[in-house]
Queue: 3 jobs
Job 1
Amino acid sequence: MNKDTLKRVLPMLVFVLLLMPIATSSLLDLEQRKVNELLLEQERVQREAEQKIYLMGKFDPAQREDFVLVPQEYTIVPNKIYLRKETLEAFLWMSATAEKDGIELKIASATRNFDYQKDIWEKKWTGFTFVDGQDLSKSLLDGLERFQKILEYSSVPGTSRHHWGTDVDINNANLEYFETAEGEKVYDWLTKNAPRFGFCQTYNLKGSIRSTGYNEEKWHWSYLPLARDFTQEYRKIITEEDIKGFLGDENIPALDLMNNYVSAINPACI
């Protein structure tokens, strides 16, 4: 290489050598960004999987730190009943206030995980538990008709709001109780006062405002500071393909379960 050529090439070599650390650094930064993005995506997928488990009730509330055992003096049944800590605190406050007005509020049912709800559902499906005085396994041989009959008051396993620890059945989960003088007094107090404590009647009377879904349940109240967010998350990450694992689940595609039941709640609770 002669001197003239060297003079021309040398500045280019120096320039290339100066750029090499910058190019190397940029490549490393790009690789690091890709790694970071992959890690973030993995974390998102993991969080979503964990939230699916929670929203579908596939856990033991006794094993979770955010759930607490409801004191026996506030329950109707002797079974162990669990709630989210925030829900229980709000209920105890509401119960104490109601007591001053001569109203007794107790919990008939609270958190029910997937297995608990599956047991309720399948006992009705097989006729072990009668529905409106009928053994549905004999009176409704058509699976879809039987499915819809059970849905009048019972949620499909994996879709119940009772999975979340935010919902309580108060005093008695039967319509007949709320037709008595005592039940009417309790319901009147709840409709006037429960919203002050964060509770909303989830399934109000069906009609023009709520035309689909479960029948009216005067006993079922959701603690909205938690339940409202869970309702939105459920619609985002749970699909009908996720809802399975119980008798009759083959009927789900025919029902538009998400719109006709999961989302068909009192508009005031949304």
Job 2
Amino acid sequence: MGAPGRRDGDAVLVGTALNLVIEGNQILTDVHLEVGSGEFLAVIGPNGAGKTSLINVLSGAMTPTSGSVRLLGRDITAEPPHRRARAGLGRTFQTSNLLLGRSLRENVRLAAGGRESGFFRSLRPVPSSGADRGRIDEFLDHVGLGRHRDRPASALSHGDRRKLELAIVLAQGSEVILLDEPMAGVNVDDLADLVELIRSVHVEQGRTIVMVEHHMDVVLDLAQRIGVMHHGAMIAVGEPGDIISNETVQTAYMGEPL
């Protein structure tokens, strides 16, 4: 059965039989992941389950030992991150990957320019016109950071740095966005705003999202489907109600109800 809001067969991101072995250790085991156009899929699991490793393989930070990754029908298994970015795949990190000494506007401009010119997050100057600056400011306004556009990224709170990362992936034109624990380190007072921003990126901007997250309340609020990883394997995928009542999933979480 297809995920809510999509037809079977219109997957935009597919990982097939993904295995990852590092120094003899099996990190991922035959993981299959299929994400439909416009879908919001969350990936959960205990610490060490392989969630970030899966994001690394999908984004190109790691190459699978075997298996394949397809984006919008194109095999990208062997392609580096910057080529995946140009093809429409964006990613945020557990630890903010920003140019802290540069302004917010420069962070967005450089990232967008890198996508167009074939280098990713390069420090090479990228020419910009008034129209370009206006477009960049629109992305910053969308995430609520427009008034800070000329401040260095280092001056932002952790939650606002997460918002800047979202402005960057939007500016890159990413059709599919991988969010790796976006709530990690964010002050509890900032969580609600960040959740609503991510929702707007999904619903209003129409982006497909795969999110790794430990906050189950956030997962249940945002996700249309949930995939559960344990010991490097995807042990269940389904709608939220089915996942939280799944006995195998509860056992994976040391017997505690989700």
Job 3
Amino acid sequence: MPDYGLYEVQEELITKRGELEEDIMTGPSAPILEHKPKGAGSAGGFGNKSSKNRPLLKTQAKEHAKVLRSQGVVRIDNVLSPAVVDKVKQFVMELRGTAQREIADQKVAVKQRFANVLLRKNRCDLTMPLTDTIYEALYESLCASSVGATIQNILGKNAVLYELSCLISDQGSDRQVVHPDTPFQDGEEPVLYTCFIALQDIDMSMGPTVWLPETHTLEIHNMFKDETAPGPNEESPKDKLLRTRPFVLGTLPKGACAIYDSRLLHCGTANRGDISRALFYFSFKNPKLGFPGNPPSIRPELQDKLTLKTLQSQLESFHKSQRQNS
């Protein structure tokens, strides 16, 4: 065996398992489709900046929340405007370069700029500061679209901002293994809801996220944890689950958002294209629960500091001042 460190050995084993799972997963698959609430008007987000549109957003959110509870994932389009997407993408790529230089010059520790990520070769999780660009993106997401109201519908206004980051999968990044972000805790209470927003159109070559709908249950988690084959040449309950379960693909258009339950089985796939895939994301934690079982991807100074209510209030004030100064 090559003289690898422990981490490199683990990465190699995970990569091989991810490749095996790609072959195993032959169940029905399709791109995740935009959820268009019936009778709730347009599902678009960034155009709804007037307060008179808030009742419409709440109506849309109730329908999105129903899908999220039952399926574990829902897609909402037009959450960020094209102009804001482009600003965030440029900001993220410049921030990544700055962070890499700061780390190389030993000005900051890695954990102050990057969070841990499964299979970090050609993949990173870059935590976000609360700059004007990020405020603008959060305003469009949490105030001007139905995303914020959808989170509130399930977790309430005191949901805690748990993560604020950007996942970047470069060319050559390998397929992850299927996993939940958090384990199934006692009871049926959801733990976290994560919002992935595409900073560019995502096609199949770029390694879209794979989600397995309706796998955010205790029964499924117990099957998923059972890797014991009952006999020679027989598959484990976990492999049978992966082989037969339908899944959806995160081939999202630019500015679209996929919200998913942290207990839902999913994985990032291999980026075999020529373009990096960037997902701006944030998550909110159930305020009734303690540690969810997975450390947060967020700047230390922001951890456990903001609820959905307080963040939305800050965002409204920011947006008002921006309009007054324009």
